[in-house]
């Protein structure tokens, strides 16, 4: 047992880390493995793979994800910024290489094959982007002679341009929403609020007019008769079929016919086999992480930490909201994973990276002032 009086780095970590949040995140990781065992065998068999192909891969990534998440929590704020910069640069280079040498799937070129694994560099961009955008906004406030806001705008434009080139409009909207939230929390003038809203509407209109897959998804959402809505319809049917208590583990039907039941529509599998009550427990876990993080952000006197914690929490929560909303037919279909639950190595490791940043920044360390931290 770790006593407060014992002086070593591990003991200091244990008594300063947010243990309730760490526990919930680790439980979510293993819940994702359980759901992968429920949802993925049918998908693997349908495409001619070993029944537990995806389960084995998911299980292989979990220890790596935990090691990344916990390892990062030992870092100080300065080291986190440096690591985020390295990850951001690596992700941007990876996204360029993906456009040049990557392979296409479902109408988008987002993946590159490395040693038999499919890597999606844009997933790792997200947590690093949030941390660096928070730092730029904080620096603009701390040292007005440094145009931090301008650099943050350039960062958004570069990341957005590469995402649109893939194309990945959903991730572009996600990053843009988190960036706008950070800009708002950093105290942007009212003029910028209306300007950003206007630019966002122009961007969405352009995507609707010039990108066929975006046009198709929005049209199918507004009028299902205009196209194929098989996946979202079956996902909704499975949620209704599960009722409050579910049909029981292994008894779901949606996973046998849905191509993406182990990724984008794993929430539907959860609802059908385990019921609405368990779904509400999972939603409660996401709410707990987001709300607790925002409360801890409010207590911080360091603007960088406050913005970074809030931004990472919003990124985590908003991605979950988008995935669940698609399953419930509350928004157009979008290929976005459910954090820590859906199958996908890049997504799993990316979320672990982001939550490692968040846990490190929320550790209860003495704050001696922002200037010393930089």
TrEMBL record:
What UniProt keywords apply to this chain's record, in alphabetical order? Cell cycle, Cell division, Cell shape, Glycosyltransferase, Membrane, Peptidoglycan synthesis, Transferase, Transmembrane, Transmembrane helix
Membrane-crossing ranges are 60-77, 84-103, 146-165, 177-210, 274-295, 307-328, 340-361
What's one GO-annotated cellular component?
plasma membrane
- Domain of life the protein comes from: Bacteria
Give the bilayer topology: Multi-pass membrane protein
| GO BP term (any one) | peptidoglycan biosynthetic process
Q: Which GO terms describe its molecular function?
A: lipid-linked peptidoglycan transporter activity; peptidoglycan glycosyltransferase activity
The main enzyme category here is transferase
According to the UniProt entry, what is the EC number of this protein?
Answer: 2.4.99.28
Q: Which family does it belong to?
A: Belongs to the SEDS family. FtsW subfamily.
Listed name of the protein? Probable peptidoglycan glycosyltransferase FtsW
> Native species of this protein?
Cohaesibacter gelatinilyticus
